[in-house]
Design brief:
By secondary structure, the chain is an alpha+beta fold. The chain has a domain at about 45-130: GMP Synthetase, Chain A, domain 3, CATH 3.30.300. It has three helices and five strands, in the order E-E-E-H-E-E-H-H. The protein has helices at about 45-70, 110-120, 125-130, and strands spanning about 15, 25, 30-35, 75-85, 95-105. The strands form two sheets. A three-stranded antiparallel sheet has the order 1-2-3, with no helix packed on it. Strands 4-5 form a two-stranded antiparallel sheet. A hairpin with a 4-residue loop joins strand 2 (about 25) and strand 3 (about 30-35). Helix 1 packs across helix 2. The radius of gyration is 18 Å and the shape is globular.
């Protein structure tokens, strides 16, 4: 590892919504994203954001994994496609998530597998989803 320091980034997000319309998501780091409320509208809904977070985390983690494995020069790209199935007849939740991670470059199959498995271990989002994190609700 290098001796460089990692700059702390503000974390968190909020999403206000009024009597009508869709929420606008905002990150503590200053990003904004218009969300959609109806399933037929183009754009991101909250479940899409969950899948997008996992896919982005996995591809960034794949690049980190390739670097840690010493094969970054042979790594060309990683593409993650994430989908899920909603649970039926229960509380509204996602019952299962599928991640298809495509890793390209001058890499053999064993190395691609090693990158993918290491990426899953590195990814904060996949690590969180593999557990049941405590959610604390503070209503004001």
């Amino acid at each position: 590892m290098s001796g460089g320091r990692v700059k702390a980034r503000p974390t968190g997000a909020g999403a206000p919504v009024g009597r009508r319309g869709a929420p606008t998501g905002g990150s503590a780091a200053g990003g904004n994203l218009d969300l959609v409320a109806a399933g037929s509208q183009p754009g991101f809904n909250p479940v899409d954001l969950l899948y997008a977070s996992l896919s982005a985390c996995m591809v960034l983690s794949a690049r980190i994994a390739a670097s840690q494995l010493g094969v970054l020069d042979q790594f060309s790209a990683a593409v993650a496609r994430v989908s899920g199935e909603k649970a039926e007849g229960e509380t509204s939740r996602i019952a299962g998530i599928t991640v298809v991670l495509e890793i390209t470059g001058d890499l053999d199959e064993d190395t691609r597998q090693a990158i993918g498995l290491k990426a899953e271990d590195i990814c904060t989002i996949s690590n969180t989803l593999h557990t049941s994190p405590e959610i604390r609700l503070d209503i004001r």
